[in-house]
Amino acid sequence: MAIVETKMLDKFNWIYLIFGASLLLIVGLSPSTHDYALYLEQWEHIAQGHDPWQNTLNAYGPFYTSFAYIAEIHPKLPALVFMSVYLLAFWLLCNPSPRFSVCLFGLINPLFLIFGLLYNNNETLLAGLLILALWALEKQKDGFSGMLFALACAFKFSAGFLFPLFFIRKGKINFKNLLAFSLTIGLLYLWAFLRWGDSFLIPFQFGMARDSRLLSVFRFIRGTHQPLAFLGMHTLDQFANMLMLLVYLALLLFIVLKKIRHTALSACIIMLGIFSFYKVGNHQYFITTFALFALFVQQRGWQKLSKPLKIISISALCWFGFTAILYHFTRAEGWGYGGLHFPIREWIGGPTFLSEMLWLFFLMKEALGNVNARPNTDFTL
């Protein structure tokens, strides 16, 4: 039996190697388009000696700015790094027991293939770093986990919402993890401050000030259909940041009070809740959400999930895959939904929000149903 399993694993590794090499080849040979073209403009701005956050649309942290020096070697090298980290994370995730369901949610769906592979979005790096950080935490490599999580937080600020999950276990602080995190992120921000001053604070303000767009329910509310217009309300954007924070605190309280033991499931719940209420509703954010769900599936096992959660999670994957395909084929001048017959920008946030809330509800229900179930390592708060 062990010999058969070893042969199956070897076969998977060869298939994955060929699959991964093919993806990297596509990344390397594909044109720089969509967000990645904007990244290159920002990195060129930095390479010329300018402040990364002044007179740019750079909404990322100091670790992101360091890719400017890699891009000088070759413009597609950062994209190759993004994809390589993501592929490494899923290879570790699938060993020694590869699951089709894990690959489905992380690697072979339209959302990832369009926004991760074709558009080279940096969300693949964030997702990869978070998966690797959780993998290291499971293997009790606390210092390495803290360092990886720090890189994720210094790359995109959304990762910071997972802070309590990494550093609090059973009511006690994981000091080794916290020390590695603090040193890594401290050095990155110290470097940024010494070189450019306090301009690294600009992205925090930029993210809060942006208008609702794309998949956001707030864009749906202020769109041409204006479902709340009969109440005299044409936008709720001004309440979006506060609502997102309240949702985050409510979800964190739920995890703590109900003693949810699965860190991956908790992380998926938090990120899904945050991105559902974040008014800048971009497709690529959900690459991370599905990656975290894939980690939970790997830990828990697809067959052990409740039937409603299976149905809803597959439905959510199909919906986001549909929105990604639709986005790709209806892009107007390179950005967003467009075209004469596709005024979907104004209403697609409504069904998207419904899909998100259904998925979030059944994830929370699954968490309650498995409150006493233990993954490989207990990550409880």
Structure description:
- With 381 residues, the chain is mainly alpha-helical.
- It has helices at residues 2-29, 34-47, 62-65, 67-73, 77-94, 100-106, 110-118, 123-138, 142-153, 163-167, 175-196, 202-209, 217-222, 237-257, 263-277, 285-300, 307-329, 349-369, and strands at residues 168-169, 172-173, 213-214, 280-281, 331-332, 335-337.
- The strands form three sheets. Strands 1-2 form a two-stranded antiparallel sheet.
For the structure shown, list the relevant keywords:
two-stranded parallel ribbon, two-stranded antiparallel sheet, mainly alpha, globular, disordered C terminus, 6 strands
Low-confidence stretches: 374-381
Helix coverage percent of residues? 55-70%
Broad shape = globular
Number of helices: 18
Describe the strand arrangement of the main beta sheet, using strand numbers. 1-2
Q: Mind telling me the C-alpha Rg? A: 20 Å
DSSP strand count: 6
Overall mean pLDDT score? 88
Q: Structural class, please?
A: mainly alpha
Which sequence of SSEs, written as H and E, runs from N to C? HHHHHHHHHHEEHHEHHHEHHEEH
How much of the sequence lies in strands comes to: under 5%
Distance between the termini: 38 Å
Question: What is the topological layout?
Answer:
Elements lengths: L1 H28 L4 H14 L14 H4 L1 H7 L3 H18 L5 H7 L3 H9 L4 H16 L3 H12 L9 H5 E2 L2 E2 L1 H22 L5 H8 L3 E2 L2 H6 L14 H21 L5 H15 L2 E2 L3 H16 L6 H23 L1 E2 L2 E3 L11 H21 L12
Parallel strand pairs: 3-4
Antiparallel strand pairs: 1-2, 5-6
Helix pairs in contact: 1-5, 2-4, 5-8, 6-16, 7-17, 8-9, 8-16, 9-11, 14-15, 15-16, 15-18, 17-18
